[in-house]
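Hi W., the 2-acetamido-2-deoxy-beta-D-glucopyranose complex you wanted:
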Amino acid sequence: MSQKKLFLALIALSTVSLLLHHGGHLMWAMEVFHLGCPALHSHTGPGLKPKHTNVAFLKTHKTASTTMQNMFFRFAERNNLTVALPVQACTHQFCYPRSFTSHFVHPHTLPPNIITSHMRFNKAELQRLMPNDTIYVTILREPGSMFESLFTYYSQHCLTFKRVPNSSLEAFLEKPSQYYRPHETYSMYAHNTLTFDLGGDKDRPATDVAYAQAFASEVERTFSLVMIAEYFDESLVLLRHLLSWDLNDILYVKLNMRTLSSKQSLTPDLLAKIRAWNSLDAHLYDHFNTSLWLKLSELGPACVAREVRLLQQAQKKLMRSCFGERMPRLRTAAEIKNEELRPWQPSRTVDIVGYDLPENLSHGFLSKAQELCLKLIMPEVQYTRVLLRSQSVRYRQSIQLRPLQQLHRNQKPMKTALPRHPPVDNNQPSPAASSPDSKFTAGT
Ligand SMILES: *[C@@H]1O[C@H](CO)[C@@H](O)[C@H](O)[C@H]1NC(C)=O
Ligand SMILES: *[C@@H]1O[C@H](CO)[C@@H](O)[C@H](O)[C@H]1NC(C)=O
Ligand SMILES: *[C@@H]1O[C@H](CO)[C@@H](O)[C@H](O)[C@H]1NC(C)=O
Ligand SMILES: *[C@@H]1O[C@H](CO)[C@@H](O)[C@H](O)[C@H]1NC(C)=O
Ligand SMILES: *[C@@H]1O[C@H](CO)[C@@H](O)[C@H](O)[C@H]1NC(C)=O
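Structure:
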């Protein structure tokens, strides 16, 4: 064997052993290289963008947004960020359905990096409250399943739905205007809820196509990303890229779901009637579902598929490390013994399922890792309370540490744990320059 051949054989051998040793990593590094996917770990290394920490997530109703809120809460806790939370008088929402104002924000949660609790969107007020490089994100859901969900969930809260004989969705859709009163409390759950949450006029007639189009454009100018609940993992991949976050930052457990027995499947006829009744929401959905798929194709379907796969693998791993082989059990609220984990029940006819913890987690001292596991499955109301408590403690400590004369100059943005992202131009006028968007944020 010539020396040259021996050399080549050695090279081949060491390549194989390298692949065997670092197989996973090398393979995916090569895959990434091939596909031209942006790197997964984006917060380290020169030239890579720092994680973006200033985010306003508009939490819409019945759209998997509770799962998103939980993710933002955990990110904030890990990175010592401040989350704007409602004053107690507003409960765990920003006095929804009133239009958002900064008076609804608890003073111990100022100045904020992140805001995610339920509100009726009011762009001008949010711009006054949030840092000027805040990225706006929200989520929409397919109008048919969304309306079916609202109809069941709020059957006892929304007077419109209460009037319907036998709580029959078919009966309601036969003649919606017979039951609907636009100015009643909670009427927004019965008509174009997404449009209302986004600050729009839910009662514009379906014939006003110009309004639907103008409103969608307005939402597009404000929100850098509109996620779609039906493509949740794909939307998360886009979010990760938008915020330069890690894969670990977007792990989640689905929260606030109904049991299968309280769901109803829709016929094409019912679906068409729901879309006709909620035409503004249907327009929004179609518009932003198209945008989402455009963004996904820009990123590259292979990259997206790969990241979705990695996300799902990482999720399984996290669940195993938290709960061992026995995954947390999906249970109805009545069955959940740990009060911290019991989800809110809208009525006796709907079962919202939550998780109960394995015995070894459900009592006693919690380690840091166990605490993360607990937070992953903690319902919205409880987590909001926990977060307010810890932020209040931090606020009081910061007051005690600060010399008295500085108390009144506390208007500068609080230092965040991560380097600030350069200001992002998402076509938002600076807070000072903006005038209230009266057309779209009309108060209630
Ligand atoms: C957050 O704050 C705690 C206590 O002040 C500190 O120990 C921890 O290192 C901080 N974490 C980050 C990510 O800055
Ligand atoms: C954002 O605010 C900072 C000060 O807080 C200011 O220096 C910067 O110019 C502002 N950026 C924009 C785009 O308004
Ligand atoms: C309500 O249900 C009862 C019993 O199922 C039925 O007899 C009645 O016709 C229903 N009413 C309407 C308005 O659908
Ligand atoms: C969303 O858009 C994609 C791509 O155009 C389409 O295939 C899909 O059917 C749409 N989804 C829904 C629920 O309308
Ligand atoms: C809880 O018990 C399961 C199964 O016995 C085990 O796999 C898991 O590691 C335990 N979790 C903790 C946090 O101790």
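Confidence is low (pLDDT under 50) at residues 10-34, 410-444.

W.
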